[in-house]
Structure formats: C-alpha cells, structure tokens
C-alpha cells in the first residue's frame, strides 16, 4: 500500500519501505512509531492518505524543488545582498494574484489572513501559518512547510536571499496597508520558520 503526504506529496510505500530513512520493507504506515513524521515536511502520519498505483501522477515535486534551489542560489551568487529587489518582486507578483481574486487586503489583520488563506487553505503550501501583529513588527509562524528542505539547504550554505512565498507576500501586503517597508528575519522552527517582519522606513508615494 502507498500513502501520500497531503502537504509535500512524499510517498511512503509499505511494500518497499524507505531504506534511506530507515524503514524496512513490509512495514505498514499504521505500524510506524507514534512519533514518526514525514521526512520531508515533518507532518504526522495522520496526514498521509492511501493511494493506488493509478492515483499517483507525476507531480514534478523533486525537479521543481531542485529548480527553485538552483535559481535562488544563482541569484545570490550574482546579486548578493542586492537581491533584495528580487524578494520584493516575488511578493508583488503574489500580491497581484491575491488582489485579482478579490481577497480582503484592508488592514493588517485582513491582509495577513488573506495571505494565510491563499497559501494554506487554497494551495496547502504548509500545514498552517499563525501570525501576531505587534506595535512595530509582525511575527509569522509557518508550520510544516512544503519547502522546508529547500530553505534548510540554502540557509546551511549561508544564502540569505529568501524566496519564501509567505514572507515576501506578507511583507508586501503589509507595505501596501501601512505604507512602511519591512525588514525580514527568519529562523528555523521545527519543520517550518519563525519569521519576524520589522517595520522600517516609510514608502514614498504609496
């Protein structure tokens, strides 16, 4: 029997096991330890669903992840810290998509909730995204992210540019609402990130 992770689409095949992660042949998903989690995104086994051979369509997850990793590393090599403009453009692109779908971007609370709905509820990029609005900053907690393994590799190589869709889109949404640019700080937290968006200078002619 094959089981698919609903977040990152990792397939656990009980007939084959997964020697790479220490799982022997013939071990059903339900017999794995209670504390077992997806080796890619860290989600619990209750989020795995049985699939037949005919149900598994090539999704291109592995090559897509590799492409994002290579592009991000390339941008950092070429632009270094100047690549900040790239992260802004990513956020602007997603923000236009949110606006075109008529999501509510009026006020910080509505803007952040729209970002959460788009990436979490509609597209399941991660298990969840919590947020807290403070006086001069906003904190995001992204849980069990589909792209965690990519970010972990980039951060281990000291590549500081972020292509994180939640971070860049939230920063641009807040800029639109408040008229201020935000500095991004990311720290690994479990199989996700703790992200702080710190209010900086006011944007002219917003």
From TrEMBL:
Residues 2-51 form the Rubredoxin-like domain. It comes from the Archaea. PROSITE patterns: RUBREDOXIN, RUBREDOXIN_LIKE. GO terms for biological process: alkane catabolic process. The keyword Heme does not apply. The keyword Zinc-finger does not apply. Keywords: Electron transport, Iron, Metal-binding, Transport. GO terms for molecular function: electron transfer activity; iron ion binding. Its cofactor is Fe(3+). InterPro entries: Rubredoxin-like_dom (IPR024934), Rubredoxin_dom (IPR024935), Rubredoxin_ET (IPR050526), Rubredoxin_Fe_BS (IPR018527). PANTHER family: RUBREDOXIN (PTHR47627), RUBREDOXIN-1-RELATED (PTHR47627:SF1). Rubredoxin is a small nonheme, iron protein lacking acid-labile sulfide. Its single Fe, chelated to 4 Cys, functions as an electron acceptor and may also stabilize the conformation of the molecule. Belongs to the rubredoxin family. This is Rubredoxin. It comes from Methanobacterium paludis (strain DSM 25820 / JCM 18151 / SWAN1).
């Amino acid at each position: 029997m094959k089981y698919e992770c609903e977040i990152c689409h990792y397939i656990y095949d009980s007939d084959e096991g997964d020697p790479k992660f220490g799982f022997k042949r013939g071990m059903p998903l339900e017999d794995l330890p209670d504390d077992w989690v997806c080796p890619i995104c860290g989600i619990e086994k209750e989020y795995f669903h049985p699939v037949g051979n005919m149900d598994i369509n090539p999704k291109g997850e592995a090559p897509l992840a590799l492409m994002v990793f290579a592009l991000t590393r390339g941008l950092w090599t070429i632009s270094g810290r100047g690549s900040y403009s790239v992260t802004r453009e990513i956020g602007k692109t997603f923000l236009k998509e949110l606006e075109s779908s008529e999501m509510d971007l009026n006020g910080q609370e509505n803007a952040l909730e729209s970002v959460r709905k788009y990436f979490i509820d509609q597209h399941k990029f991660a298990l969840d995204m919590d947020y807290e609005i403070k006086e001069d900053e906003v904190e995001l907690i992204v849980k069990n992210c589909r792209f965690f393994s990519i970010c972990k590799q980039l951060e281990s190589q000291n590549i500081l540019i972020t292509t994180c869709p939640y971070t860049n889109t939230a920063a641009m949404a807040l800029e639109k609402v408040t008229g201020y640019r935000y500095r991004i700080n990311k720290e690994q937290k479990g199989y996700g990130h703790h992200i702080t968006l710190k209010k900086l200078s006011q944007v002219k002619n917003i």
